[in-house]
Amino acid sequence: MEKEHTLDWLIDLVENAKSINTEEVKKNAVASVPTSLVESLMHNVASTKPSKELKLLGKGVPASPGAATGVVCFSSDSVLDATDEGEKVILVCNETSPADEIGMRMAEGIITVRGGMASHAAVVARGWGIPAVVGVSEMEISETEIKIGENKVEEGAHISLDGSTGELFSGEMELQESSEEISELKVILDWADEIRSGHIKVRANSDTGKDTERALSFGAEGIGLCRTEHMFMGDRLPLIQRFILSGDESEEEKESLNELMAAQRSDLSEVISAMAPNPVTVRLLDAPLHEFLGEEMQDEWLEHNPMLGTRGVRLAILREQLYRMQTRALIGALSDVKEMGKKPNADIMIPLVSEVRELNLVRSWIEEEIASMEDELRPSIGTMIETPRAAITAEEVAKSADFFSFGTNDLTQLVFGFSRDDIESRVIGMYINEGILSANPFEKIDFQGVGHVIKHAIDEGRKINPELEIGVCGEHGGDPESIQFFFEAGVDYVSCSPFRVPVARLAAAQAVLSSFK
Ligand code: PEP
Ligand code: MG
Question: Residue 424's pLDDT band (boundaries 50, 70, 90)?
């Protein structure tokens, strides 16, 4: 972003454009706003005032933008204790898992030793608008302190981070508060919406009623990805663990599924009612087992490559009752929302499909469950395209899918063969420095490779169904350059973390403007 692109500059731009008030001037105004300005207005930023107390400790992957400061806590439990005492806290740990989410939500910022743009800590932090720096591979955490090179910070001492640059500092940083409510920003985004209307939609990824309301306030036109496994965190983790560890078709399985169904139904109705009448795409469970079972529980489920293991549709095929239960929970949620006097609108999406017969089988179970529903509420059934094989065989897959949504996190992982959890801190930074890669492919879509696979899948899918609705719900859905690529490739909508929705609205309008130049 150029120096002169400040909030004052934006205010002047909008005032001038409003005084002339022609379509041309509005379009030029929208085209001239850097997406980085909108991003910086959405988050707290590090104050520009230099501070003697701050000392640069090191750098990691800038996983979730914004600056944050607080005292170091090493676990979710100590975050909760410290926030109870009124402290502002930064969670520092090797990596995060669903069990940490209660603490993550309460933290001002998150720092992890391992991970990258598409790892658990990064995806969750971006979703909640919490600044995060991940993959700080030179950081060591001992019982009482962290060590980065020669520098040490004790648990309970102040640490600061800038999630936009990846920098970490010891000491307390002065912050400049975010300014989301600026009316000129609202005007620019409304003009952006007029420009992209009828061309490309912007949805959000959300799995709670609260985040859905926030997404709506940021201008989301639907939920493109509701990750149902995120509904099984915290207190509910034992329930999903009990289900996974129970025998197929056992009494134990039945009981755990009943409990899960009640929880799922109420969560889904919150999300669907907050977004009604706009659509919510409910992604059925995709729980990488290592994230859900602690090490001590893994035993027979232990996998060398859990991200390539019993995930998504694969677990569902091993355990037929799982997706049937989730479908019943959704049916219940739809009727609950209808009873509230709203117009519920939800679809079902199947994760990690690589062979169309996987989709056919689970689709047949879901269709049995929804057969007696009234037409108006009946969800359509689509698939994520997130394995290279699903993309390559998209012509076949499209015969069984009502819509496609690209999971570009997994697709990038699998097309490159780069682990989304481990590769960024060591290899990607080095590859960028050496000029082997021009950007982090987990941040900006790799046009040549992953992009090629995406275009192929769109062309093949629309050969079968020219009206096939196609979205993107991986993290790239909130990245401006990637949005331009997706629009040109023929995508109908992008879906991203709620906090990235304003940037995506602007980027989508700019993509439309540049394609009609
Ligand atoms: C993806 O893979 O891009 C995706 C959206 O799914 P998840 O990140 O939950 O694996
Ligand atoms: Mg995925």
Answer: confident
